[in-house]
Amino acid sequence: MTKTESKPKKTAKTAKKAEKKITMEELLAAHEDVAKPLAENDIIEGTVVAVTKAGIWLDLGPYGTGLAVGREVAEAGYKDSLPGDNITASVIVPEMDEGYSLLSLKKASRGKNWELVRELKDKEEVLKVSPFDANKGGLLIEYEGLKGFLPVSQLSTEHYPRVSDKDEILNRLNNLIGTELEVIILDVDQKEGKLIFSEKEARKSEIEEAIEGFEIGQKVIGKVTGVVDFGIFMNVEGIEGLVHISEISWDRVEDPKKFAKIGEKLDVVIIGKEQDKISLSLKRLQKDPWAGEVGKIKVGDEIEGEVTRITPFGAFVKITKSVEALVHISELSEEHIANPSEVVEVGKKYKFKVVSIDIDNHKLALSLKNSNKKSAKSRDAEKTTANSKKTKATKKSPKKDA
Predict the structure, then answer these.
(1) What is the pTM of this model?
(2) 239-244 and 219-228 as β-strands: parallel, antiparallel, unpaired?
(3) How far apart are CA 89 and CA 63, in angstroms?
(4) DSSP 3-state of 82
(5) How far apart are CA 263 and CA 265, in angstroms?
(6) What DSSP assignment string belongs to 318-364?
(7) How far apart are CA 46 and CA 89, in angstroms?
(8) Closest CA to 89 of 54, 27, 43, 28
(9) Distance between CA atoms of residues 402 and 146, nearest Å
């Protein structure tokens, strides 16, 4: 070869040899998603190829064949499956000795149902369910194959058992078994297996709208749903109402059970509204005897009353059948006293001076020291007058001779 001859050009074959060689590891990595073997609990979709007594056989593509055992087919809702249908399954055993994968339709279905209830919770969708059992804490519910719970506290006014006896609570809850209830899902936790329902929240907007339609001072009819120490619970057109013990009667109420029975219907008046309940009154439909009797009394009047109770801060005095007043400890004596019993006794009557009257709040304040002070002045005046008369009489009388 002479100096004037050019060097031979690189052929295509030579250039190909110069390219970087691809290893087997890199080829496997490029198709990792296909080559990755099945693992327990994997969710996989397959096509039905046959339905036999053993179960449903699925074509899993590159993973071969899988069998969903027969006892789960009906439970998972796939008993009417046909060849060509697509089914999602969960892997129980990735590879049996016979070469196929053992699958679970029920487990995969349960996983889908957890996703479903989470979506329903987020949407606050109202569902219809029927309890299958009950305990003292609430109702047991099954929804889409998942076990759930409806606590007593989440029952609507209509179904809430307003009783304190636990056996009676359970008895009332048992009566709701099989009853169709409208609920929403309150809480979902797949890991903990927790599914909580609420009937009360399902009616929240309906209740708020109904309460908005009520007016303060409106007379309504309520059905007694429970009687407790602090008042009477009532159902008013599906809304929960409470007649507090202070609103049962103008007289002092010791036991609300003497004024109402469960199931009884009573006329009441609405005196307050809250977001999910109303406040009611029985006594305001009756004439206030307190106001009528106190209307005859004026501030400054001196009246007689009987001490009925003594407390560290004063004494309660009964003026009439319906009127009881307070004499504060500071109004019992001109001098400082540590205990009202130093001045007054229960069952005894005294003269008091009216210090203040509050008709709206049923408060009548009395004073014993002012009344005593006035009485003392009167007695002193009477004594002075008597002494004066006696002196004059003595001066007019003639002296006897010694």
Answers:
(1) 0.54
(2) unpaired
(3) 13
(4) coil
(5) 7
(6) E-SSS-EEEEEGGGT-SS--S-GGGT--TT-EEEEEEEEEETTTTEE
(7) 8
(8) 43
(9) 125
The DSSP code for 402 is -
Locate all alpha helices (DSSP H) within 132-231, ordered by sequence: 166-174, 199-202, 204-213
Strand ranges (E), 4-61: 43-52, 55-59
Closest CA to 243 of 213, 272, 211: 272
> Dihedral of CA 96/98/101/107: which sign?
negative
SS3 110: helix
Q: Is residue 400 very low, low, confident or very high in pLDDT (cuts 50, 70, 90)?
A: very low
Structure tokens at 297: 């009394």
Amino acid at 382: E
CA gap 87, 97 in Å, rounded? 23
Amino acid 390 reads K
Q: Is 117 helix (H, G, I), strand (E, B) or coil?
A: helix
Name all domains of the chain by residue range, CATH numbers in brackets.
35-107 (2.40.50.140), 124-202 (2.40.50.140), 214-285 (2.40.50.140), 290-374 (2.40.50.140)
The two beta strands, 219-228 and 194-198, are: unpaired
Q: What is the pLDDT of residues 153-211, one digit of tens each?
A: 999 888 888 877 888 889 999 999 999 999 999 999 988 889 999 999 998 888 888 99
Cα–Cα dist 157/238, whole Å: 7
The partner residues of 220 in beta bridges, in order of sequence, read: 268
